[in-house]
Design goal:
Blueprint lengths: L7 E4 L2 E4 L10 H5 L2 E3 L2 E5 L4 E4 L1 H13 L9 H14 L6 E9 L14 E9 L9 E9 L16 H13 L4 E5 L5 E3 L4 E6 L2 E4 L10 H12 L4 E3 L4 H5 L3 E6 L3 E8 L2 E2 L7 H14 L10 E3 L2
Parallel strand pairs: 8-9, 8-15, 12-13
Antiparallel strand pairs: 1-2, 1-7, 3-6, 4-5, 4-6, 5-17, 6-7, 9-10, 11-12, 11-14, 14-15, 15-16
The structure holds 4'-deoxy-4'-aminopyridoxal-5'-phosphate (PMP).
């Protein structure tokens, strides 16, 4: 699938046309996965384009590279301005996905990556609607386990880490389901290849903690806040695999997936096979917040225009 990329990208501090943004074949990141990225959404509400939780994304962007001493050679302010700037430059007036990334550039075959390793930084964007069917998707546990801190830091949002997501997705598709669920090294639920997971049991929400190798998702954090507003209990705790099948509701959270209900898990129908009551409340809250209809959360939105 070729992305419908916007006309301009931001590359090492400059706006250039997309086809001119090229890297040499010796780029370290291509060989060793030494790239750091974020996925960000911006929403058009008919009046303005709003970037959702931009500050949190920029913070995680820098932090991901710090696990490996890979330098992001520009300030948070420069990145923030470049993200809103690339939307402006492309005159975007529809919902879009924004992908900032930096990566180790020309560094030979050297595995001793230090803060002195040269890096490049770029941002592209494309129009983006729903990733998944919001009426609900099917999911199943796959045999591949989520990698853990035993081997590499799960909180580093880096290219190489996503090989685990790719092999899990391949297995899920072979099994005929829409999305994979990975267990952690101890056999508890961790997350999906690119989303966090929540279950609802007896009116209470639960999501795996970071010690189950789940990414500290920004949407996950938003849902925890929304649950508090809606007077719902929410716990970060171990979730046993067998709890999935007896959950009243299950949903995924992520920038791309937003809030996506799971209506079938390991061939078991969840709830009555359509999005549950609590899931729908959270979805509604999410939409009102990103559309800037909920003034309590307008500080989570950065206006582009
Ligand atoms: N887990 C993984 C592995 C992811 O790639 C993502 C997407 N960034 C998420 C969870 C969800 O995180 P966020 O809500 O910050 O997009």
């Amino acid at each position: 699938m070729k992305l419908p990329l916007s006309k301009y990208v931001w590359f090492d501090g400059k706006y250039i046309s997309t086809e001119k943004a090229l890297v040499p074949i010796t780029t370290h990141a291509i060989h060793y996965g030494t790239s750091i990225f974020e996925g960000i959404r911006a929403y058009w509400n008919g009046k303005n384009l709003y970037v959702f939780r931009l500050d949190e994304h920029v913070k995680r962007f820098r932090r991901s590279g710090q696990f490996y001493n890979i330098s992001l050679n520009c300030s948070d302010k420069e990145i923030t301005n470049a993200i809103t700037g690339i939307c402006k430059k492309n005159k975007i007036e529809k919902p879009c996905y924004i992908r900032p990334f930096y990566f180790v550039g020309d560094y030979g075959i050297n595995l001793h990556v230090t803060e002195k390793a040269p890096t490049n930084v770029a941002i592209f964007t494309f129009p983006f609607g729903d990733l998944f069917d919001k009426k609900g998707i099917t999911a199943g546990v796959v045999s591949w386990r989520k990698f853990s801190d035993i081997s590499t830091p799960p909180q580093a949002k880096m290219g190489g880490n996503y090989l685990n997501s790719i092999i899990a997705t391949q297995e899920a598709k072979r099994n005929g389901v829409d999305e994979a669920i990975l267990l952690d090294q101890n056999g508890n639920v961790s997350e999906a290849p690119g989303e966090n997971i929540f279950i609802v049991r007896n009116g209470k929400l639960a999501t795996p903690s970071l010690s189950s190798s789940a990414l500290e998702g920004i949407t996950r954090d938003a849902v925890i806040e929304f649950a508090k507003d809606l007077n719902l209990d929410v716990m970060e705790r171990d979730i046993a695999r067998s709890e999935l099948g007896i959950s009243d509701e299950i949903f995924l959270t992520g920038t791309a997936a937003e809030i996506t209900p799971i209506v079938s898990m390991d061939s078991k129908i969840i709830g009555n096979g359509s999005p549950g009551k609590i899931t729908k409340k959270i979805m509604k809250k999410y939409t009102s917040v990103v559309m800037n209809e909920d003034k309590d959360y307008s500080h989570w939105l950065t206006a582009v225009y």
